């Protein structure tokens, strides 16, 4: 009698289990609300409870798994637990309909390839807007929950979760961008050798130049408390 053995793919089993859990919990949400799709996490009672449980688990993980200020797991078990917490955050985000890439707080980072978000609880990272060109500038409008960013020779904007991408201003060479969220203006520095500071309202009106060409501004900022 011959016996054959197959190696168990634990990673595939975990992936299938994770996907099945998403489907089951999603169905429970729709059943709970009578089949109506909710539009934000405040409408789902257990989302806050699940998030608080995750926060407590991450707090315990940091206490037992991090060596002082070094943010590196001190064992393979701790690394696996951290990965599991990140999977839980992904599930939380997918099922609870947050307006951003994660429940707050999170951090946006831009590089030449796109804009990424990092969850500041579990350090999970996700791509929000991929495939950008010459992405030298980025700014956020907290009031409208919009990201403004350079893409080639234009400035575009999108929701915090990466949806509703649209071109805001065309034919511009941008080095730095900042948002006056109180005065509802965007201010940007043109690429060298121009280097001028420009300003325009976020409704697309009132575009004007503030400084002369060749001023060589390296950066720009707005007082977030008064605009």
From TrEMBL:
Alphabetized SMART domains for the sequence: LY
Coiled coil: none
Gene3D superfamilies, A to Z: TolB, C-terminal domain
InterPro entries, per the entry: 6-blade_b-propeller_TolB-like, Cueball_EGF_LRP_Nidogen, LDLR_classB_rpt
Superkingdom as given in the UniProt entry: Eukaryota
Protein name from the UniProt record: Uncharacterized protein
Organism: Paramuricea clavata
Taxonomic lineage: Eukaryota, Metazoa, Cnidaria, Anthozoa, Octocorallia
